[in-house]
Amino acid sequence: MANNQESILAPVSGQVKRLEDVPDPTFSQKMMGDGLAIEPSEGKVVAPLNGEVVQVFPTKHAVGIQGDSGVEVLIHIGLDTVNMNGEGFEAKVGQGDYVKAGDSLISFDLDRVRKQAKGVITPVIITNGDALDALEKTDDGEVEAGKSTLLQTKMKTEAEGDTPVASSGEYGDEAKAIVRALGGEENISVATHCVTRLRFALNSNDEVDKSKLESLDIVKGSFLANGQFHVVIGQGTVDKVYAAIVNETGIGEATKADVKAATGEKQNPLQRGIKVLADIFIPILPAIVTAGLLMGINNILANPGIFYDEQSFIDVHQEWAGIANMINIIANTAFTFLPALIGWSAVKRFGGNELLGVVLGLIMVHPDLLNAWSYGDALEEGTIPTWNLFGWEIDKIGYQGQVLPVLFASWLLAKIEMFLKKRVIDSLQLLIVAPIALLVTGFLTFIIIGPVTFAIGNWITDGLVALFDQYAVLGGLVYGAVYAPLVITGMHHTFLAVDLQLIGSTGTTFLWPILALSNIAQGSAALAIMLATKDEKLKGLSGTSGLSAYLGITEPAMFGVNLQYKFPFIAAVIGSTVAGGFITMQHVQASSVGVGGVPGILSIVPGGWLAFGIGMAIVIVLPFAITYFMALRKLNK
Fold it and tell me: Which part of the chain is the PTS EIIC type-1 domain (predicted)?
C-alpha cells in the first residue's frame, strides 16, 4: 500500500512566491488548487517526487505527475507560455513514464520565455487537493531544484475506491452544459484549450451566464482576458471535456492561434490600433524604464540646486564628474537609438525580419545626419544640410527620439519584405529581398515618410503643450481621472508613444508624472483594504498587490482587489484626479519615462520634486482614507 505522506521537492531552482502573487487568476485564485510558485533562475525542470507522468502538454510548457501516494502535481512553466507553441521547450519524458525525484522533465530557454511570454513565474499546484488531509508549504525564500522541499502533503486515509477512468463519452453532458452557459453554439466563434482551461472566442461576452457556468461541478472558475473567455477545468480533464465539446456539438477543433485571430477580428479599428501599439511598445518597455531610472540618478548628480545652492553635486565634487558622464551615456543610449528599438519591435509585429527593423532604425539616427535635437537651431540659422536628387532638395536630418517616422517606415519595410519573399525564389532571397526592401524604405523614409510624420509629431506635441499651458489644471484633472479606466481597456499603452514623442521633441513630458501618481493611488486603495478586512486571504492579496502598485505594477491591485469591490477603484481615481490637477498647475515634468510608482520621483525634473512629493502625499492619503472608512462599513458586516 502506498505511503500516504509525500515530500514534494522544488522542480525548478529560484525564488519562492505565493500563489496569490501570480498575475493570473487561474493560479492566484487557486482555481486549479493550492501550492506555491517559483521565479526560476535557470531553465531546467526536474521531477519533484517519485511517480508517473500523467500528462506532458503538446506545447511542452506544463507537465503533470501522480506521486506514489496518489497526490497529483502540476508544474506550469511561465504564464501564457502555451502561445509559444513549444518553441524554446524540450520534453525529456513522455506520458506514462515513471520518474524518480530529481529526474529531468523539461528544459526551456529562460531568456526566450522572459521575452515572449507573460511571465516566467512557475506555479506548482496540487490539483487533487480534496484528497489531501494536510498541506504544508515551505517558508524558504530560495529553493534548489531536486533538493529543497517545497511542499509536504498527507493524503486522506479513509478507504475509497479508485476513481474510474473516464470513457470517451463521459463528459458529454458537462460539455453541453458549458456550451449552454456560454450562450449556446451560436455564441461560440472558436474554441480551443491549454493544459488547464478551455479558451473561447465568443461572439458576445454578455450572453454568458457566469453563475450557471460556475455552478457546474466540473468548472473550477472562469474569467475574461485579452478578449478570450477562459473556463478553468483542470489538468488531465480539460482535454477530455474539449473532445466532448467537439464531439457533442457543431463546434470544430481549433488552435490557440485561431482563437487569438478570432478575438482580434471582433475588435474595432481603434481597439486593433491600440493593440498594435501595445504589441510594439511593451517589449521595449524594460529598456525605456531602465534608461529612465538611470537618467534620474544622473539628474541628481548633475542638476544644480539639489545639494548646493546654484551648484550641482559634480560641480562641487569634480571626482564624480566622470561617473556621472558614464551614467548619462548609458542612460541616454535607449533614447538616442529609440528608432532602432522601435524598428526591431515594430517590424517583428508587422511580420518582417526584426533585424532589418534594427538596421532601419539605425539608418534614421546615422551620425552623418543632422541630429533631430539640433533641427530647431539649424532651421533658424538656415544651415539644414540637404541632398540634391536631380535638382530636388531633400533635408538630411535624423530622427532621434521620434516615434511616428519609424513606426510608419517599419510597416512599409515589413510589407515590402513579405511581398518580395512571396515572389523571389529561395536561392536569390538573400541577394534581393533585404537590399531592395531597405533601399526602397530608406528612400521613401527620407523623402516622404520622415518629413510628413515628423511634422505631424511636432503638431501633436505643440497641440498638447498649448492645451496644458492654457488649461493646466483641467488637463491634469481629466488625465488623472481617465488614466486608470484607460488601463482597464488597454488604451493606456497609446500614451507611452505620446510620452516618448513629447520627450523627443521637448526634452520632457507632463503626462507621465500623472501616470506615476495614478499607480500609487491604486496601491494606496489596496493597502487600505488590507488593513480594513478581516479576511486573511484578501488581506494577503491586497497587501502584496498594493506594494506592487507602489513599485509601478498596478494590475494585481486594480484587477485583483480594487475593481472587485469598485469603491477602492473609485477612491483611487478621486485621489489621482486631485493630484493630477495639482501637479500640472505646478508645471511638474519628467525628463524620462521611469518606474511608474514611488521610484518615479527620480524621473521628475528636480525643480518639480516638492510639488510631486505633495502629489504623492495626496494619492497616498486620500484614496487610503476614503477606501479604509468605506471598507470598515462594507467588508466586515
Answer: 275-637
Q: Could you give the 3-state DSSP secondary structure of residue 43?
A: coil
List the grid coordinates of 275: 493593440
229 CB neighbour count, 10 Å cutoff: 25
Range of lowest pLDDT (42-56, 249-263, 522-536): 249-263
Q: Confidence class of residue 162 from pLDDT cuts 50, 70 and 90?
A: very low
**Three-state DSSP string of 255-317:** CHHHHHHHHHHHCCHHHHHHHHHHHHHCCCHHHHHHHHHHHHHHHHHHCCCCCECCECHHHHC
CB 12 within 8 A of CB 122: yes
Catalytic member of 194, 198, 358, 403: 194
Domains along the sequence of the chain with CATH: 5-155 (2.70.70.10), 172-266 (3.30.1360.60), 274-464 (no CATH), 508-635 (no CATH)
H helices of 507-562, in order, are 512-532, 536-550, 555-557
d(CA 588, CA 570) in angstroms, rounded, equals 24
User: How many angstroms separate the CA atoms of 5 and 68, rounded?
Assistant: 9
Q: What is the pLDDT of residues 498-550, one digit of tens each?
A: 888 788 778 888 999 999 999 999 999 999 999 998 888 788 878 888 888 89
From 227, 246, 228, select the one nearest 238 (Cα to Cα): 246
Residue 592 is classified by DSSP as: S
- Burial (CB count within 10 angstroms: exposed 0-12, middle 13-18, buried 19+), residue 161: exposed
Phi/psi at 35 (5° precision)? 160, -150
| Helix intervals (H) in 148-189 | 172-181
Residue bearing the bigger pLDDT, 100 or 551: 100
φ, ψ (nearest 5 deg) of residue 9: -80, 165
| 88 φψ region: left (φ > 0), alpha (ψ -120 to 50), beta (else) | left
What is residue 46's three-state secondary structure?
Answer: strand
- Give the per-residue pLDDT at 1: 39
Instruction: Write the single-letter amino acid at 280.
Output: I
Tell the residue number behind the cell numbers 522533465, with chain if given. Answer: 105
pLDDT, tens digit, for every residue of 433-486? 999 999 999 999 999 999 998 888 778 777 877 877 788 888 889 888 988 887
pLDDT tens-place string over residues 164-188: 344 445 788 888 899 999 998 888 8
For 371-398, how does the pLDDT look when each residue is reduced to its tens digit (9 = 90+)?
877 877 787 788 889 998 888 889 898 8
CB of 206 closer than 8 Å to CB of 224: no
H or E segment to which residue 38 belongs: strand 34-40
User: Angle 209-211-215 (CA atoms, 0-180°, nearest 5)?
Assistant: 120
Q: Which three cell numbers stand for residue 445?
A: 523614409
Q: Mean pLDDT across the stretch 46-53?
A: 92
Contact in structure between 605 and 299 (CB atoms under 8 Å): yes
Q: Give the per-residue pLDDT at 17.
A: 92
Q: Which amino acid is at 358?
A: V
Q: Is the dihedral of CA 390, 393, 395, 396 positive or negative?
A: positive
Compute the average pLDDT of residues 201-220: 85
**DSSP 8-state symbol, 119:** B
Does the annotation mark 385 as catalytic?
no
For the record, the C-alpha cell of 511 comes out as 503626462
pTM of the model: 0.56
CA distances to 27, 195, 390 from 23, rounded to whole Å, are: 8, 17, 58
